[in-house]
Amino acid sequence: MSGSIVILTGAGISKASGLETFSGDGGIWNTHEVDKIASAEALAKNPTQVLSFYDDMRRKLLSDEVSPNAAHYALARLEAEWAGQVIIITQNIDNLHERAGNTHVIHSHGELTKARCTSCGHVFSWWRDIDTNDLCGVCGEDAPLRPHIVLFGESPLELGKTEDALGHCDLFVSIGSSLTVHPAAGFVDAVNSRDNTRTVELNQEPSARSEVFDEGYFGAAEEIVPIFVSGLLAGA
Q1: Disulfide: which of 39, 84, 162, 224 matches 2 by Cβ 3.0-4.6 Å?
Q2: Among the options 97, 107, 109, 148, which is catalytic?
Q3: ∠ CA 31-34-40 to the nearest 5 degrees?
């Protein structure tokens, strides 16, 4: 029971925790205009509106309404009990993996609980609203802060670490991702290009890339992820 496991997680894993998904039926982008609240251009033109949008999300994440669910705890159990390495690459901007107990998490789209200097790029832990008057204080430029979030029009974070993890994994698992956004949509191809690897999709329903996975299991993440993890740890 060893080998390296890389797990990609999308919004579907956090739905049962009380957080809305972004795409699909009932998703955030069905009720908000992306270019006005979540793009690099919007941040430059109307920072107050962008900050307010992510402030609302941060308050929701840190409220009593939101907590890790059984899927998050199952992945924390996998990291604790698996003899090899377990790395999570998450498209989510919440901190539910860490709150459940995972320690090896790559946040490719950023984190709600962090802010970043718009001048020097210094990243701060951040647990309250970001105001336009909040300044860096590190680089000496008195530069304003912004959410440490990948906005539309910006590149994902930690691409080097992501490529390294995918290049060495024996098992790749995608959980709760629609796999419609690149580069995440191509992660399974990178793993499939190597011999003796296994790819598995766990999702509410088949994603846009389901046909290229070796296996697929479908249902609510909080139900199927614990079952899958128990099977792995039992040697299945």
Answers
A1: 84
A2: 109
A3: 155
